[in-house]
Known about the structure:
It is a single chain. The protein is an all-alpha fold. Helix content is about 80%, strand content about 0%. It has helices spanning about 1-10, 15-25, 30-40, 50-60, 65-80, 85-95, 100-110, 115-130, 135-145, 150-165, 165-180, 185-195, 200-215, 220-230, 235-250, 255-260. The longest helix is centred in the first third of the chain and has 14 residues, at about 65-80. It is globular. The relative contact order is 0.05.
Amino acid sequence: MQVCRKILGSHPGEPHALHMLGLIAFGAGDAAAAINALRQACQAPVVPAAYHSNLAEMLRQQGQLGEAEGHARRAVELDPNLSGAWNNLGIILQESGALIQSRECLARVIALDPNNSTAHNNIANTLKRMDDLEGAERHWRRALALNADYAEPWSNLANLLREQGQYDRAIECGTRAIQLNPRLIDAYINLASIESARYRHEAALEWLDRLLGIAPQHPLGLAAKANALREMDRLDEALAEVERAVALRPDNAEVQSTHAALL
């Protein structure tokens, strides 16, 4: 970081130093400083496509989807063969609800890099949102065939199997996900929903308490715990949990819906 600042002291606006400074800041958890540095870097007349792609991903993680999409599109315009940029654009469009475009972008990634397990997982997520469950399962299983230690597809399969009523297999997949990545938030929420679906609310609560043990301020985890407590008629406790979630994420529809149900 000191080297980057020294370069910028003598060459203000030098894009490569700004880009490196942004990556260092992002790795240190300072997303605002990282985004600011990459925005400045991308204002240079000529920069690599990856700079726009990296900025797009940082912006996406902060929920700034409109600006993120613009930089992701600029990245693929500069380098149509940059699979990572197509992947970032596909995820941004998925989160924006532009599912057909998301599927096209992620299919482009797979065409460029057929053995990219992340791309198979991502396109499966898009297909799931499009209600193409067969296609989603096919790509999740392809992701696992390429990388059996990839936790996210195991968690996603657990959620799909729950919807199909295959609860025992769903639990196996979700547990496998947590074994591979004990900090994978979605896996705990999926396992809790599986147990709730078969009316095992105490077991659901155990998974959610494990989640909140590693991420005590996670709003969806708090909302899920509130739902589990509500099913057990522990309404005062449930209301306390969801009010914590509302304080953290008042803009989240799922949190507000849980709050409304309890009220």
